[in-house]
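Key result, reporting period 2: structure in, sequence out.
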């Protein structure tokens, strides 16, 4: 077995070490057990990879993406979340009391209450990611014609953004570096009435949400941004020398990263435990590794504590990005586009199979922004969804309204802020006087009335709103603009009848005897506890 984007030959691995293209056998880019462990890939991800690959007597060339997907799937479930600012930009809140610190209690993991909460302090000065501010008057603004990029929802000069879990702020002034003219500090105002996700009545919802770290309690650390060691699938295939294909960007060292205090606290506790274990002479079977401490640094990737860390300098290795950054954008060839049109026409006349039905339905990732009871129906609730829609100007569109029969099935506090799957191209329908413009997908155990258990489909937090769900081993979906004719509505009925939860809690589509997972760019769509049941 060979892995793409790497080499497994012992001779080549020795060459990499001896010529110092890597730091040693345990370099996190090396395909060695020590390298994989130091990078932070959990044992469960390796076992999952082996299960998916199976055993074969023939030579095979395995896509490294499969290993990365296995790591993402395991880490999404296991790793607590934390704020880390990789490229800090200082933000001063001018109307905040200089000496005041306010603590926010936030979940360590959005789907695992048993992991508890962490405390995130907020104060007069915070850091945000430089990429979360678009400088209209700087070089990036000039290069883009003085306009924000299409779909940009984060902070602009004179614009507003929400600091996750905290407040909405507005940028009033940009303080620039005298030498480079780049933004060095943003002077902002906060709105106290927007605390913890509240949108005051009569005001428009602020679409952008970004992470942040309070400056006085922030812990500075080093982050090793590891990527694939080689830039081609088969190193050396073109030139005969595998060293010619080394990826010059396989390591980027960031030494000005700041993390929230809970990360530093967890890391220092682990370092102390490892030191005590070493003094006590623990054997290999009970040895504790630095990389057992992993995090999802929100909107950045999955990271593990490196073995070079000390109490004076914490070092984190990037295990894997949140989404596959190496995958090419799917582009249908002209012939394929024509074939798709023919197949859609066949589907309308009843000649196509269920595969084409599935590709016509727009299953999209969305976030529930609000949830409340329906004013006229006890069994219904009303939700506001961010489905990633944009308006004609390219900015964020108004949230969609969804009416769902989930009253009493799922608590409201378990709905708001949750990433879910919705159908976005069904014909809008009025339900007790309120128009519903999408539909939530949920699994049910099929029991009657109050005994029924209902669970929404879950997607990894890193998946952006609006992303189109695809079916495993099928071409990308090409959904209709809207399923509104009688024939088109039957398409959804046929698809729905074949959607099921597997015995391991994954959402699947049963296609003429072939079971296909519902997939996102960061892994499969899942259900938290139900198995072997229907989705609808």
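The corresponding designed sequence is given below.
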């Amino acid at each position: 077995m060979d892995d793409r984007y790497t080499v497994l030959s012992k001779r080549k691995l020795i060459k990499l070490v001896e010529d110092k293209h890597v730091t040693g056998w345990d370099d996190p880019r090396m395909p060695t057990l020590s390298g994989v462990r130091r990078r932070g890939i959990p044992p469960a991800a390796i076992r999952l990879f082996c299960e998916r690959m199976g055993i074969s007597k023939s030579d095979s060339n395995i896509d490294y993406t499969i290993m990365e997907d296995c790591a993402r799937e395991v880490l999404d479930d296991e790793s607590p979340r934390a704020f880390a600012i990789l490229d800090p930009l200082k933000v001063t809140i001018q109307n905040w009391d200089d000496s005041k610190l306010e603590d926010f209690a936030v979940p360590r993991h959005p789907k695992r209450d048993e992991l508890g909460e962490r405390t995130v302090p907020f104060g007069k000065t915070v850091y945000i990611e430089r990429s979360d501010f678009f400088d209209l008057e700087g070089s990036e603004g000039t290069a883009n014609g003085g306009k924000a990029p299409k779909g940009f929802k984060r902070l602009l000069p004179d614009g507003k953004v929400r600091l996750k879990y905290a407040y909405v702020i507005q940028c009033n002034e940009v303080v620039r570096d005298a030498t480079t003219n780049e933004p060095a500090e943003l002077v902002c105002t906060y709105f106290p009435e927007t605390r913890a996700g509240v949108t005051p009545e009569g005001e428009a919802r602020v679409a952008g949400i970004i992470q942040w770290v309070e400056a006085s309690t922030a812990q500075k650390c080093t982050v090793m941004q590891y990527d694939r060691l080689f830039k081609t699938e088969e190193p050396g295939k073109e030139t005969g020398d595998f060293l010619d294909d080394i990826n010059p960007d396989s390591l980027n060292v960031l030494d000005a990263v700041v993390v929230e205090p809970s990360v530093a606290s967890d890391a220092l506790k682990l370092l102390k435990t490892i030191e005590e274990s070493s003094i006590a002479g623990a054997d290999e079977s009970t040895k504790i590794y630095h990389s057992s401490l992993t995090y999802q640094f929100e909107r950045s990737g999955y990271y593990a504590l490196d073995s070079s860390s000390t109490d004076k300098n914490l070092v984190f290795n990037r295990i894997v990005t949140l989404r596959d950054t190496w995958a090419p954008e799917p582009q249908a060839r002209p012939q394929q586009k024509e074939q798709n049109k023919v197949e859609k026409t066949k589907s309308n006349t009843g000649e196509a199979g269920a595969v084409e039905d599935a590709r016509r339905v727009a299953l999209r990732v969305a976030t529930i922004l609000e949830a409340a009871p329906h004013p006229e129906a006890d069994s219904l609730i009303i939700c506001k969804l961010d489905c990633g829609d944009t308006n004609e100007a390219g900015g964020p569109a108004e949230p969609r309204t969804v009416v769902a029969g989930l009253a009493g099935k799922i608590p409201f506090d378990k709905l708001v802020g949750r990433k879910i799957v919705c159908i976005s191209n069904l014909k809008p329908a009025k339900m007790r006087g309120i128009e519903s413009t999408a539909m939530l997908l949920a699994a049910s155990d099929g029991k009657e009335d109050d005994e029924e258990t209902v669970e929404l489909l879950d997607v990894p937090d890193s998946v952006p709103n609006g992303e189109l769900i695809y079916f495993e081993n099928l071409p990308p979906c090409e959904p209709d603009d809207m399923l509104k004719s009688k024939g088109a509505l039957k398409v959804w009925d046929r698809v729905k009848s074949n959607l099921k939860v597997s015995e391991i809690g994954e959402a699947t589509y049963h296609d003429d005897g072939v079971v296909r997972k519902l997939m996102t760019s960061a892994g499969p769509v899942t259900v938290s506890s139900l198995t072997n049941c229907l989705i609808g």
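The longest helix spans residues 261-280. The longest strand covers residues 363-374. This case is discussed further under Risks and Mitigation.
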